[in-house]
């Protein structure tokens, strides 16, 4: 993924509903740090415009004609400098969230969210971070509560983990990759992988989804 350059950041938006694009356009026109360079009505146009303009950020729906947003996400990741992608979707499910983030999305919001929340997501993504709206987090937590995963430990983090492991947990729970976490903490990816395995073991959890749920419960996430 390409590094965040100097401001203003170029943005391409994609949605098959003109009114949604108008709302995003007005928001971007009032944000000095961002510059709208193109609009697309479907996934094919989005990929074509992304190749032409090489935007820093893409805001896209998942359900569009000709090529849906998920297929477009996959293609965007093949570009020499993939943009950072914000997904704005009407149909928010745990499966859609997992699929989008697995294919490069760094932020996920419901279309029911206010434009202010999209502004918050844009600013977080512009800093190189990730953003998941509160409603999206709720959907993931509800899925976890109905899954067969083991119950989350009740003990406070400092009773179970070392200070370094808590730092690693915070970054992983915010959606950072192992490499991104290693870079942020000045560690090797192998060391972060070791910490992750130890954290899972000490908390009695199976996967990153469990780590995210634990971090939310104990107020360790910076992304809400």
Explain this structure:
With 224 residues, the chain is an alpha/beta fold. The chain folds into two domains: 9-143, 3-Layer(aba) Sandwich (Rossmann fold), CATH 3.40.50; 149-217, Orthogonal Bundle (Arc Repressor Mutant, subunit A), CATH 1.10.10.10. The chain contains eleven helices and six strands. The chain has helices at 18-29, 43-53, 69-76, 94-102, 115-126, 134-145, 157-160, 163-173, 178-185, 189-203, 208-217, and strands at residues 9-14, 34-40, 57-60, 84-89, 105-110, 131-132. Strands 2-1-3-4-5-6 form a six-stranded parallel beta sheet, with helices on both faces. The longest helix has 15 residues, at 189-203. The mean pLDDT is 84. Pfam families: GerE (PF00196), Response_reg (PF00072). The modification 4-aspartylphosphate is found at residue 61. Residues 154-219 form the HTH luxR-type domain. Keywords: DNA-binding, Phosphoprotein, Transcription, Transcription regulation. Residues 10-126 form the Response regulatory domain.
């Amino acid at each position: 993924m390409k590094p965040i350059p100097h401001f203003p950041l170029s943005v391409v938006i994609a949605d098959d509903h003109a009114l949604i694009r108008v709302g995003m356009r007005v928001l971007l026109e009032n944000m000095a740090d961002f510059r709208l360079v193109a609009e697309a009505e479907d996934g094919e146009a989005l990929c074509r415009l992304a190749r032409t303009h090489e935007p820093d950020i893409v805001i896209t729906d998942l359900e569009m004609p000709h090529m849906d947003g998920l297929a477009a996400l996959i293609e965007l990741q093949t570009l020499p400098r993939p943009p950072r992608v914000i997904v704005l979707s009407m149909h928010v499910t745990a499966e859609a969230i997992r699929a989008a983030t697995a294919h490069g999305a760094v932020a996920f919001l419901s279309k029911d969210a206010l434009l202010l929340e999209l502004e918050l997501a844009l600013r977080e993504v512009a800093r190189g971070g990730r953003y998941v709206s509160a409603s999206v987090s709720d959907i993931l937590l509800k899925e976890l509560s109905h899954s067969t995963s083991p119950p989350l430990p009740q003990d406070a983090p400092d009773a179970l983990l070392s200070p370094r492991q808590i730092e690693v947990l915070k970054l992983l729970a915010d959606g950072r990759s192992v490499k991104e976490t290693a870079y942020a903490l000045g560690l090797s990816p192998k060391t972060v992988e070791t910490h992750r395995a130890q954290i899972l073991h000490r908390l009695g959890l199976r996967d990153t989804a469990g780590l995210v749920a634990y971090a939310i419960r104990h107020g360790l996430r910076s992304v809400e």
